[in-house]
Amino acid sequence: MKEKLSVKDLINIGIFSAIYIVVMMAIVTAMGTIPIFYLVAPFFVGIGCASVYMLMAMRVRKPGVALILSIMLALLFTSMNWMASLFAIFCGLVAEWILNTAGRQNEAGIRKSFLAMSCATTGPYLGIVFMKQTFIDSTALYYGQEYAVKLDALTPTWIVFAIAGLAVLGALVGNKFAKRVLGKHFKKAGIV
Amino acid sequence: MNFSSFGTVSKEVVPIDPRSKFILLLGANTIMLSAPSLGRELTFVGLIGILLLNSKLYKRTFQLVIGYTLLIGLDLMLIPHLSGFLKMLSLTCIRVLRLYVPIVITCGYLVSSTTVSSFIAAFQKMKVHDAIIIPFTVLFRFLPTILEKWKSIQYAMRFRGLKVSLTTMLLKPLTTMEYVLVPLLMSSTKTANELTAAALSRGLKAGHPRSTYQNVKFGLVDVVLTSFVLGMIITSFVK
Question: pTM of the prediction?
């Protein structure tokens, strides 16, 4: 359990985090062109990033994998809002805990931990909840209570939970996909 | 955000420590998202403008000034004259954009005015653990490589009569993803091994603190800048 991450592991984590971030950004920007799809982007990010995460966790079976990935995500998210960063690290810690309890050799455990990791993508949407309140307060001041109430109805708070749910759902689909792809290509080649 | 510009050297008039730039980014987040008064907002945007000029990022300064003036002009001039649904829609869009423009510009400032080596030097001074520094360095080193690989994968796919387009994405999303992801992951695992060998031969594992070309120093300007930003953050919470 007390194995330390070697330089090789750290480089592996760096490379796979880079792929994770690129896949995530590519999907989000592709979705972002149509605003409604922007809200369901975490679902597709979950599908796309599952195999990257799986491969990373299977190549580096030591404590700290998920946490370091989440810290990289958190650094990226500082460009959006700091709640997103904190939330990403929290997701990483949960993923790490799941990996620890399930055992790092356990593939099902890795898959389960991705469900938590996938939620990290929900972070940027937390802005909707927190920013909305300050936004509404300021608009109520300028434009009256009625407008603020209308705006409140337009962006319900539960939408964030729906997005998190979508992220988990996407992770489930992604895990199926990852299992098939990794079994078909990587196990045969002896990479994992 | 343009990651490929990360690491290009930009000469600053007054060198500013990456750490204070990072605090500036955090400040942009907290201040802009806490419904600031117009005066505070303008002060902060002015500060970013000065820093951008300091780093000789003229194009970004231009973007900030034009974009922000346009949005704030629309906000103050146009919106009071509108009414009903149109007002609500335009107010929401323009206000949200107006608050996010400084954050995005600050992030661009951090990325394009800091070299990777000065980032690492700052991290080392902050006594950040190697477990963060090494993946972080590899990550930024690897981002352009991924774009290169992506191009090669597309060529290889075209060679076999396959392509990635909107139709294939919509009709066979999983198959398309498999065609792209598998070669990408496969060659990346190879690169990981090569990069490890290269890093080890350069003594990354030696356990001795590494020296850096770039020297970072937390000077007087940084002290003034960070205390100013921290002051703004704290007052935006207290208010």
Answer: 0.83
